[in-house]
Specification:
9-stranded mixed β-sheet, Rossmann fold, 25% strand, alpha/beta, 3-stranded mixed β-sheet
Length: 240
């Protein structure tokens, strides 16, 4: 009796699986799908191409969502430009929901004369976007650098901007991270561009020291545009 019951259960599971595979009610963009009510839904894709994300699921159109390889499709969506992470959910009877988490640019990266790209915290270079981003240019990072190196240098910049805070960071035009022991920032100040050498720690304290003492620096050395703030008891003018 146990053997018969087991065989009956296996047969029932097989019949159920065949029902889920073959019944058109479970097909992605099947009987309930139309241009007005698509059964593939994409959320969170503001910059990532919805057309490219949708193309990932083209092999599944007309097939039961039961057959959808969730992990494989998630990996493919994560390879689309601007996508940082994604979740692919199967919603019965015939819907698939794709939730996208997009990458957030943190700086502009110079690609050549008058050519710039966006770069995120992971060192990923992003395609152009129609948005207007107010971000500094990061120097000391190149598109040809290995991604782990780009990521490490971007993190240097983020450590500096977190210490400085949003108000001071908004004034910066360029951050040079080529020397891990001496980060440099350039910012428009009083009608000219000032370069500040900030070292590798106490960025906010050193920046505020510059703000506090700049009127006196300008009075004594009106042509000075490059200042070393790494010494605790003085500000040094660097030869141009």
């Amino acid at each position: 009796m146990l053997i018969v019951a087991g065989l009956a259960a296996l047969y029932a599971l097989h019949r159920l699986e065949q029902f889920l595979v073959r019944d058109p009610r479970f097909a992605l963009n099947g009987p309930e799908g139309s241009e007005d009510t698509p059964t593939l839904q994409i959320q969170g894709a503001a910059h990532a191409s919805q057309r490219k994300i949708s193309a990932v699921f083209e092999p599944d159109f007309g097939r039961s969502v039961y057959l959808l390889p969730l992990a494989e499709r998630r990996d493919a969506v994560r390879a689309v430009d601007w996508v940082k992470d994604a979740a692919v959910l199967r919603l019965w009877p015939n819907r698939v929901l794709v939730r996208v988490t997009e990458r957030a640019p943190v700086a502009f990266l110079a690609l050549g004369p008058s050519r710039y790209a966006l770069i995120d915290e992971d060192g990923v270079i992003l395609p152009p976007a129609p948005d207007r981003f107010t971000l500094p240019v990061i120097a000391g990072v190149h598109a040809s650098d290995p991604r782990p190196q780009r990521r490490e240098r971007v993190h240097r910049m983020l450590r500096l901007t977190r210490d400085l805070g949003a108000e001071a960071t908004a004034k910066i035009s360029e951050i040079d991270v080529s020397d891990a022991e001496n980060l440099k920032i350039a910012l428009p100040w009083d009608g000219r561009v000032i370069t500040l050498l900030l070292g590798d720690h106490d960025f906010a304290i050193r920046y505020q020291n510059f703000v506090r003492n700049y009127p006196e620096i300008k009075r004594r050395l009106p042509e000075a545009t490059k200042l070393d703030l790494r010494l605790e008891d003085r500000i040094t003018v660097v030869d141009q």
